[in-house]
Design brief:
27% of the residues lie in helices and 23% in strands. It is globular, with a radius of gyration of 16 Å. It has a single domain (11-176), classed as JHP933, nucleotidyltransferase-like core domain (Nuclear Transport Factor 2, Chain: A, Roll). The two termini are 20 Å apart. The protein has helices spanning 16-29, 37-44, 70-79, 137-142, 154-164, and strands at 33-36, 61-65, 83-84, 97-107, 110-120, 126-129, 132-135.
Length: 182
């Protein structure tokens, strides 16, 4: 589970260059993937929102890929300069088919690493939001016990409350709002 948030840092934003680069990479594989994690909450949030670090986790891009589409996604990623990265999870016994690909992009004299984590799985409940398929919110919340770890993000906490009240979280301002006391 995610570490407790430092409320003194609420209001910090993700660098726009990171957002733009990640969106460019997502666009390339969008027809074969279902977006999960922080990027799913991003697409569920109201358009044009400010990218607050504590609202959505954009450290990496989490995806689900159907088994039939793995070759297309891997080919596309490798063609764009991504390389397979081995993790500690690759050696552990698991029912998950997990893969990590990374590349570093030069940005203003420094390197910005883009990490794409994907899980091979069919039948992930999703919905189409704009041009992207994203994991269904209630299903996505269930992934915070084993796949995702940033369960303290504003969007995750807001979605828990909204769904408990029978309200669909998609498009709701609560997904991007700094909690009271923050």
């Amino acid at each position: 589970m995610g570490d407790r948030h430092n409320t003194q840092r609420y209001g910090e934003t993700w660098p726009q260059k990171r957002i733009d680069l990640c969106l460019r990479e997502l666009e390339v594989v969008r027809e074969w993937v279902i977006v999960s994690g922080g990027w799913a909450w991003h697409f569920m949030s109201p358009p044009g929102h400010v990218e607050l670090k504590h609202a959505h986790d954009h450290k990496d891009i989490d995806l689900f890929v159907a088994p039939r589409d793995v070759a297309a996604v891997v080919t596309m990623l490798k063609g764009r300069g991504f390389a397979k990265v081995w993790t500690k999870y690759d050696k552990l016994p698991s029912n998950e088919d997990f893969r990590r690909y990374e590349k570093t992009v030069a940005v203003g004299g420094a390197g910005l690493r883009i990490t794409i984590d994907f899980f091979v799985r069919a039948d992930v409940p999703c919905r189409v939001l704009g041009d992207y398929r994203v994991v269904e919110p209630s299903y996505l919340l269930g992934l915070y016990s084993n796949i995702h770890s940033s369960d303290k993000c504003f969007a995750v906490q807001a979605a828990v409350r909204l769904l408990a009240a029978g309200i669909d979280p998609v498009g709701r301002r609560e997904l991007i709002a700094i909690p009271n006391g923050g």
